[in-house]
Amino acid sequence: MAGPAAPTARYLVLNRFDDEFGAYHRYVDTTRYALAYLTLADCADVLDRDNALDTVVVADLAFETLLPEARRLHERHGFDGIVGLSEYDLLTAALLRAELGVSGWSPDFVRDFRDKPRMKQRVSAAGLRVPRFLELDADTGADRIIDQIGLAVVLKPRAGAASHGVALATGRNELARALASVDPAEYQCEEFVAGSILHVDGVRRAGGFHFVSASLYVNTCLAFAAGEPLGSVLLDDGPLRRRAVEFSAACLDALNLSDGAFHLELLHSASTDELVFMEVGLRPGGAEIPLLHRDLFGVDLMGEAFRATLGLPPVDDPADFRTAPGGGWVLIPEPRPFPSRVLSRTPLVGKLPEVYAETVPEVGEVFDGHGGYLHIGGSFRLRGPGQAAVHRAVLDVIDRYELIAEPAHDHD
Asked: Is residue 275 a contact partner of residue 199, using CB atoms and an 8 Å limit?
């Protein structure tokens, strides 16, 4: 009797997810496609190890750490693709592909989405508005930045994410202090453009949108990093949404993204009514974005990203996606000062009709300031009849949610 058929393709997966996003086997037919994993130890339990070609636990996901392990696995199995869905693994996966001769996105292509000056150069060259910006070096001082860009300005890590290390400077002395605190080789500086911040999320296939949505941030990611709540509301269909989607398509064309997931942020200028490109990630948005889109639209952004990265057909037909009347989410930051222990919190499901899902910390949980967008003071997903109603509900969540914490001491 013949045994099971050999898989038609084998893929190597870099994993740093410890939740459902690590269940990659959901995205492929495991009788046809076989997966091997390089994973962090505390993220291994979510993997389908029983059906894996190999599961190797590594100390970290740095390229230098992974290369010998990936080479050994490639010699054993012969991979047809390598994928890392996290922002922090995109370039590592590309470098491994190049080193091992595996097809897929090249390091140069991925760097256009990881390096902020590179991405703005590409978008600007296509005739699209980007903030005036300057790459820093050891000789870049406050006076040069003010002369070339003006004030206010934003200092950003060239390859950062989640607003880590971002600083807004509105005056010369503030700018000088910010410059003194960063490594210029790792930073760039850009003009601050006043206005609303939008985010456009979706998947491209064959140079067009397989799925796309557009949303308005309530507050900013930078303010969230400083300890303020962050929300988002899906835009109603209308002129602004259509403009944002068209502008995003032009930006993605400039970056040659034909197939892949994206999270693109842009500004709607308060003074000029123009749209201004901010940055784009070559992966689904974080926070509640993948879950909200699955719940409201029936689109699995993570699954679509996984398959697009490997050159596989989409998970779903766009005709099967649902239309959402309105939706959004709210993130409550970690309680401060760090570390802090939760004494009480007020769940809102059942109290606010628009809140349909929430994650709130347990009483006694301790926060240390390193939770990112996941291990935080509370997260809420909302649905409603449209943008205005959900926007009001987002503000209600921010107003009504109470999180009480106390300093947590080492000896406690």
From this structure: no
Task: Give the span between the Cα atoms of 225 and 245, in whole angstroms.
Answer: 27
At 86-115, the pLDDT tens digits run: 999 999 999 999 999 999 999 999 999 999
**Residue 181 CB neighbour total at 10 angstroms:** 10
pLDDT value of residue 5 = 67
For 52-72, the pLDDT digits (tens) are 999 999 999 999 999 999 999
Tokens of 301: 């952004």
Euclidean distance between CA atoms 207 and 187, whole angstroms = 31
Question: What CATH number should be reported for the domain whose range is 325-412?
Answer: 3.90.1170
Coil, helix or strand for 385?
Answer: coil
| CATH 3.30.470.20, the chain: domain bounds | 195-322
Mapped onto helix, strand or coil, the DSSP state of residue 388 is helix
Q: How far is CA 160 from the centre of its chain?
A: 11
Q: Is the pTM of this model over 0.90?
A: yes
Q: Which CATH number fits domain 9-104: 3.30.70.20, 3.30.1330.10, 3.40.50.20, 3.90.1200.10?
A: 3.40.50.20
Q: How far apart are CA 228 and CA 231, in angstroms?
A: 10
**Angle 169-224-245 from CA coordinates, rounded to 5°:** 90
**DSSP readout, 55-71?**
EEEES---HHHHHHHHH
- Count of other CB atoms within 10 angstroms of residue 206: 7
Residue that is written with structure tokens 């985010």 in the block: 199
Question: With 0-12 CB in 10 A as exposed, 13-18 as middle and 19+ as buried, what is 113?
Answer: buried
